[in-house]
Design goal:
It is a single chain. The chain is of the alpha+beta class and 246 residues long. 37% of the residues lie in helices and 21% in strands. The chain has eight helices and eleven strands. The strands form four sheets. The protein has a four-stranded antiparallel sheet, with helices on one face. It has a three-stranded parallel sheet with strand order 3-4-5, with helices on one face. A two-stranded antiparallel sheet has the order 1-2. Strand 9 and strand 10 form a beta hairpin. Helix 1 crosses helix 2, helix 1 runs parallel beside helix 3 and helix 3 runs parallel beside helix 4. The chain is elongated. The mean pLDDT is 89.
Length: 246
């Protein structure tokens, strides 16, 4: 665990009062006042983060709309579900529209509706010019949401880049093809792996457009009818497992 060092933003050391509004941090723990209403929490955190009193009402209304909690604005947050509380938490930190927003596991334990609300809000901030740093173990979220990805292993950076760059540098662009046929496969098929389901075949292909038709022909010539096909490109999980071995 680090116990020394410094943090800078745009080349300036953080820690002064002037730098505070430029940086927003969403911790993994929910940090809202349970006895205050949604609106009161937003008002308090807005003032904490430097939002001017004249702009506060407009920012609070924006946050209530983005979170989908306008109809619960005057209820104490202690009555909310975990997902709703996390929506309020994210909104509280983004009221000042910081230049840089750091989120640590913002969707842990969050229901699908709240997850989409949170990301809709983050998308809007991104369009407005906020740079967003997301820390997550949800690889599917990182794959879909992030423009650039850094993989850490035991506190050390082991890879970074866009998803296509990470794929090209590790496992390559081949596709995993899984095919289900009409009956149990007898004796195997050369070039295919048979799955736990004895009607399932799988293989890797480099060029789907060129190779898939030949694959289908080979299966039909062996006497099987194709019932379903799944083609999956290499994703972040495969890259992560390749780099870390687990």
């Amino acid at each position: 665990q680090l116990d020394s060092g410094s943090v800078s933003l745009d080349g300036r050391a953080l820690g002064t009062r002037d730098s505070r509004p430029e940086l927003g941090i969403v911790p993994p723990e929910i940090s809202v006042y349970p006895l205050l209403t949604t609106r009161q929490n937003l008002q308090v955190f807005g003032r904490f983060s430097g939002v001017e009193r004249g702009a506060l009402r407009e920012r609070v209304d924006w946050a209530l709309g983005c979170t989908g909690l306008a109809d619960r604005a005057d209820e104490p947050t202690k009555n909310f579900s975990g997902g709703m509380k996390r929506r309020v938490n994210v909104a509280c930190v983004t009221l000042n529209r910081p230049g840089m927003l750091v989120l640590d596991e913002p969707t842990v334990g969050v229901d699908p509706q709240s997850r989409e609300r949170i990301y809709d809000m983050l998308d809007e901030l991104c369009v407005q010019g906020t740079s967003i740093l997301l820390t997550t173990h949800q690889l599917d979220e990182a794959e879909v949401r992030c423009d650039r990805i850094i993989i850490l292993d035991h506190g050390r950076t082991i890879a970074e880049g866009t998803l296509p760059e990470l794929v090209a540098d590790t496992i390559g662009p081949s596709r995993q093809v899984t095919i289900w046929v009409d009956r149990e496969i007898q004796g195997g098929l050369d070039g295919f792996e048979i799955g736990a389901d004895s009607r399932q075949l799988s293989l890797q292909v480099g060029n789907v457009a060129e190779e898939l038709s030949r694959v289908f022909t080979k299966i039909r010539e062996a006497g099987y009818a194709i019932e379903d096909v799944n083609v999956r490109g290499p994703g972040l999980q495969a890259v992560f497992l390749h780099l870390t071995g687990r």
